[in-house]
Amino acid sequence: MTELLFQTDAYMREFSAQVTATEGQAVALDRTAFYATGGGQPHDTGTLSASDGRTWRVTEVRKQGDQVWHTLEGEPPAPGTAVQGTIDWVRRHKLMRTHTALHLLCGVIWRDYQAPVTGGNMDTDEGRLDFELPNFSNVLAQEIVAKVNAEIAAARPIEVRILPREEAFAIPDLIRTKINLLPEGISQVRTVNIVGLDLQADGGTHVADTGEVGRVVLLKTRSKGANNKRIVIGIEDAG
């Protein structure tokens, strides 16, 4: 089982770990700060290094069961090897900003239109969410993005907690997706709370307050059906 360090500290850039298994070019670690692809968020990249000077570039991270596998360039270290992990912080921080921006978008639309999310994806500089949102227009999308930027300017703090399943599911509207994507039988649920706006179950990495996002711009809109509408946003530095 791999301990997921990013779940409690998204700002962790370096960590120590031990290789527990190998599979081809991939290694499993007993603990990691690398985020594995999931929930629409891409994996982190970075490096692993050993005390003898060997260094491996981490090109892919995936979760399989309770283990996180890190695909490396070059011959991987053997099980039992102590390694130091270093996150590509520039990439990670962009992903954190984008993911938080999508939660702001989700929070604004839920607060003002009670529209659930039907799909989503993201990369370092942009992300998209699909909503069950009738009477949609580009003008409405621009208004929504303006509201998101107002929430960014409010610099709302963001709190991450890991709760027992029963306590988490007692929270109203914890699941904002049209379909509940949480695995059956999980005993703990990680929640992300943009204080005063949005509280939902989520496993990804986020900034500490909304002001760190910078600025959101509307890139495009698209109709995916009668009531299924897509909003694509980009992330910019605050001007």
TrEMBL record:
One matching Pfam family is tRNA_SAD
One biological process term in Gene Ontology: alanyl-tRNA aminoacylation
Q: Which UniProt keywords apply?
A: Hydrolase, Metal-binding, Zinc
Where does the record place the Alanyl-transfer RNA synthetases family profile domain?
1-231
| Family annotation (InterPro entries) | Ala-tRNA-synth_IIc_core, Ala-tRNA-synth_IIc_N, Alanyl-tRNA_Editing_Enzymes, Thr/Ala-tRNA-synth_IIc_edit, Transl_B-barrel_sf, tRNA_SAD
Q: Which PANTHER family match?
A: ALANYL-TRNA EDITING PROTEIN, ALANYL-TRNA EDITING PROTEIN AARSD1
**Listed name of the protein:** Ala-tRNA(Pro) hydrolase
